[in-house]
Amino acid sequence: MEYDIEQIRETRQKAALALVEYLKTFRIEDKKSDSKHALMGPVGKLLTRLTTTGDINWDAVKGYVLSIHKNQQAGRVPANAAERLDEAIQELSRLRDLLPPTKWLKTVEDLDDEVFFRVYKEKLVGQRAWIQKEFQEWLEKKYKTIDKINTIVGPDYGYSSFTDVEDPWSAPEELAELVEEYWEDRKKSKKEEKQ
């Protein structure tokens, strides 16, 4: 039997994207957690369930995953969750039909890692954008006008507003002391929130 490598690659990609889209319907209980278990939610259980070389009852898998989703979300599952899960399961089923049996388990393992990477990366990008905004607001509160920041960084940057300032990790070297002060203030305020 001949296998269409390009079709397998495309279907695998669609399956990964569909799983990520499904996970967007899942609210992480602990927003601060970035563990694989927390971020993958029911998809982690789904992929574990698929690590078999025997027959798969796809409807049973969907029911199992939605049950986990419901239990982890205190009974609140968004209306579009079942649709997105169905799309993901369809792609996974197609992928299994396209693959040689000897490649299925490794592919499921790789999908697990790929979906986690995509979800984790998305979380980090979101956190980074949020911290950039917080940093910009902190600078504005401290300096009131962007001119004072432009004086510090020199003419090479010429920010037109605080929203042009990079995140703390990407800020120019000239802002290093301010970045350090920002992190200290942030750490202090987080500590006070906990008390």
Which labels suit this protein?
195 residues; mainly alpha; 2 domains; 7 helices; 70% helix; 0% strand
Protein model, in words:
The protein has 195 residues and is mostly helical. It has 2 domains: 5-124, no CATH class; 144-194, no CATH class. It is 70% helix and 0% strand. It has 7 helices and no strands. It has helices at 5-23, 36-49, 58-72, 80-98, 101-143, 146-153, 176-194. Helix 1 packs antiparallel against helix 4 (80-98). The protein is elongated. The chain starts with a helix and ends with a helix.
Nutshell version of this structure?
By secondary structure, this protein is mainly alpha-helical.
Topology readout:
Elements: H1 5-23, H2 36-49, H3 58-72, H4 80-98, H5 101-143, H6 146-153, H7 176-194
Amino- and carboxy-terminal Cα gap: 65 Å
Query: Care to count the β-strands?
Result: 0
Please mark out the parts with pLDDT under 50 across 5 or more consecutive residues, or reply none.
none
Biggest sheet layout: none
The number of helical segments is 7
Number of domains: 2
Q: Radius of gyration over alpha carbons?
A: 23 Å
